[in-house]
TrEMBL record:
Keyword field contains Transport: yes
UniProt signal peptide: 1-36
UniProtKB keywords: Signal, Transport
Pfam families: SBP_bac_1 (PF01547)
GO process terms (BP): transmembrane transport
Family: Belongs to the bacterial solute-binding protein 1 family.
Protein name (Swiss-Prot/TrEMBL): Raffinose/stachyose/melibiose transport system substrate-binding protein
Domain of life, source organism: Bacteria
């Protein structure tokens, strides 16, 4: 996504052709508002001028761990804009949606700039008129369409945020553990299973993951099983009504992941996200299927951890014969429509579309920036971005099926959890996913 749009399979047109039953997004918006009504207002502080006449822009995020990095990033903006101070406030990820809704409904004193979840979750805020359209304010015409689509309104096709990062998925691994056991990054599925067997025999957990979190399981299915459905070709077939999630290839993709259950943490469906991270950073697990967003916190937790990366090998029976690197745009920054500093806030998010911000973002936060042409210096992230440029595929449940209730990722994650528990077959899991997503999705036609 941070490469020219011709280097990865374009997804924007297919994404915008996705249809929702008219009540689906309205129900989602009302649900978010109802949740927020019972929550206390955030404590991030309000916008406005300082006592000495300077303008203070408040930026809200769901990543408090990025505070120090953003302080250094925004220092460059402040230097170029005398009299403007940027104040970053990070909220707990699980609490952020309700806190953000409360902040955006204030007529005054709310945040100026807000970090927005991509694809479906941002739609309720757009439809409520709580965000400033940025089409005439920020030039994203040179950006890949599939990146910009993460912040696009489904009804009006307008852009409401500047994407900040591209996430790619793959298998992260502990180089030291691999070397200790004489294991090389596998290039076949059987080779990966053999490596897992060897690690398990040595009392090392082959794959760390969280089966307690549906969204993590959905990423696990995408990371390891994207080849088994043929990547984005399957998504497009579902979008066009040519197939659905009862398709045997989709069931086989779920089963391929379920077959790895012996190599996952014991009682995986009871393992939380942070516990899974700790299994990897502590050296108890050798591999971690996930995204590039994990690398910075992994290194913070274990500075000596030597992390490598490989694409999951092709699942036997796949309609493709080369590995795939799934990816997606990981949110954007938008402007609160009720901001008392709207002009300055727009100027800040416009700066977030520049190479200067992209380079600082990559350096300070160790992530892949969404700004086209800016590559991360970190070699692992650079390799993941290269894989995405060469054989990328959109993260299906986020990019294409993240626009209703339940979100595609949650439907898939819950079905996969039931499959891992042995409560359903892969075919039954696929039928459940179809039922859940089919409650709000209608194919093109």
């Amino acid at each position: 996504m941070s490469q020219p749009s011709t280097t990865v399979p374009p997804t924007g047109g297919a994404a915008r052709r996705l249809r929702l039953r008219p009540t689906a997004l309205l129900a989602a918006a009302l649900a978010v508002t109802a949740v927020a009504a019972g929550c206390a207002p955030g404590t991030g502080g309000g916008a406005g001028g300082g006592g000495d006449g300077e303008t203070t822009l408040t930026v809200w995020s769901w990543r408090p761990e990025d505070a120090a990095g953003y302080e250094r990033i925004f220092a460059a903006f402040e230097e170029r804009h005398p009299g403007v101070r940027v104040e970053f406030t990070g909220h707990k990820n699980t609490e952020y949606p309700a806190i953000l809704q409360t902040g955006l409904t204030r007529t005054s004193g709310g945040p100026d700039v807000v970090q927005l979840k991509p694809y479906g979750p941002v739609q309720a805020f757009i439809q409520a008129g709580q965000l400033v359209p940025l089409d005439d304010e920020v030039d994203l015409s040179s950006w890949p369409e599939e990146t910009v689509d993460a912040a696009r309104g489904r009804r009006d096709d307008r852009v409401y945020g500047v994407p900040f990062a591209v996430q790619t998925l793959g298998v992260l691994y502990n180089r030291e553990i691999f070397a200790e056991h004489g294991i090389e990054p596998p290039d076949t599925w059987d080779g990966m299973v053999d490596a897992a067997e060897e690690l398990k025999a040595a009392d090392v957990i082959p794959f760390a993951t969280s089966g307690q979190e549906p969204w993590v399981l959905a990423l696990l299915r995408e990371t390891l099983g994207a080849t088994r459905v043929g990547g984005d070709a399957f998504s497009r077939a579902v979008l066009d009504g040519e197939t659905d999630f009862t398709d045997p290839d989709y069931a086989a993709s779920l089963q391929a992941v379920a077959d790895l259950e012996p190599y996952l943490p014991p009682d995986v469906t009871a393992v939380g996200y942070t516990d899974a991270q700790t299994l990897f950073t502590s050296g108890r697990a050798a591999m971690y299927p996930g995204g590039g967003y994990e690398i910075a916190p992994f290194r913070q937790a274990a500075p000596d951890l030597d992390i490598g990366y490989f694409d999951a090998p092709v699942v036997p029976g796949s309609p493709v014969d080369t590995p795939l690197t799934p990816g997606f745009a990981d949110g954007s920054y938008g402007v609160n429509a009720a901001s008392e500093n709207r002009e300055a806030a727009v100027e800040l998010v416009a700066w977030m579309a520049t190479e200067e911000f992209g380079r600082a973002f990559a350096e300070e936060l160790e992530q892949i920036p969404a700004v086209p042409g800016v590559k991360p210096a970190d070699p692992v992230l650079a390799a993941m971005l290269e894989g995405y440029a060469e054989h990328g595929t959109p993260y299906m449940m986020g990019v294409h099926f993240g626009y209703g209730d339940p979100l595609g990722r949650d439907a898939e994650g819950m079905a996969l959890a039931a499959l891992l528990l042995g409560d359903v077959t892969a075919e039954e899991a696929g039928k459940q996913v179809q039922k859940d997503i089919g409650s709000w999705f209608e194919p093109n036609g």
